[in-house]
Amino acid sequence: MIISLVGLPGGGKSTVGRQLAKRIGARFLDSDAVLEERIGMPIRQFFEQFGEAAFRDHEEAVIDSLTAQSSDGALVLATGGGALLRPVNRERLKARTTVVYLRSTPEELYRRLKHDTQRPLLQVADPLAKLRELYEQRHPLYEQTAHYCVDTGRPSVATLVNMIMMQLEVAGVLRPDA
């Protein structure tokens, strides 16, 4: 079983994913961390040197290999914010995993990310405007791909994990004693 978390940058995919994996006894992987390991440099540096298209090619290969490992036991996978831009990634995630969309408003994300210097797409004059643009572009893709959606708002990480677990238990994806 693979549970994939999708959403905008700063939506909590890695933080919530680590705690969810711990709670259900699964492995946790962050596709961006796996990608950085494979390309041998930080994503921001790769973006600057090779551009977004080359980055998305590598990201697609990582998503494919990580979602093909279904026999390795339970896995919680945090995806990169832009992973769903490619139709093949949306198809693979939806078909091979249980996708949970961590939905956040651009304003909430800006509050969390206003001092972040590591996210290449947010290194612009008006990060809030950029987050609004990303939301307009990506929100429909996240909704179309997700099996479940959880609004992040301001709940604690533990509360978000509980909300995800309840949705997955009700759906029969997880046993209530997990």
Share in β-strands: 5-15%
- Main β-sheet: number of strands, strand sense, barrel status? 5 strands, parallel
Radius of gyration equals: 15 Å
Q: What order do the SSEs take from the amino end to the carboxyl end, as H and E?
A: EHEHHHEHEHHEH
Q: What is the typical, i.e. mean, pLDDT? A: 90
Counted beta strands: 5
Gap between N and C termini: 13 Å
Helix run count: 8
The geometry reads as globular
Low-confidence stretches: none
Strand order of the largest sheet: 2-3-1-4-5
The percent range for helix content is 40-55%
Structural class: alpha/beta
Textual characterization of the structure:
The chain is α/β, with parallel strands linked by helices. Helices cover 54% and strands 13% of the residues. It has helices at 13-24, 31-39, 43-50, 52-67, 87-96, 106-113, 127-145, 157-170; strands spanning 2-6, 27-30, 75-78, 98-103, 148-151. α2 crosses α4 (52-67), α4 packs parallel to α5 and α6 packs across α7. The model has no long low-confidence stretch (mean pLDDT 90).
Task: List strands and helices in order, with pairings.
Blueprint: E1 2-6, H1 13-24, E2 27-30, H2 31-39, H3 43-50, H4 52-67, E3 75-78, H5 87-96, E4 98-103, H6 106-113, H7 127-145, E5 148-151, H8 157-170
Parallel strand pairs: 1-3, 1-4, 2-3, 4-5
Summarize, please.
The protein has helices at residues 13-24, 31-39, 43-50, 52-67, 87-96, 106-113, 127-145, 157-170; strands spanning 2-6, 27-30, 75-78, 98-103, 148-151.
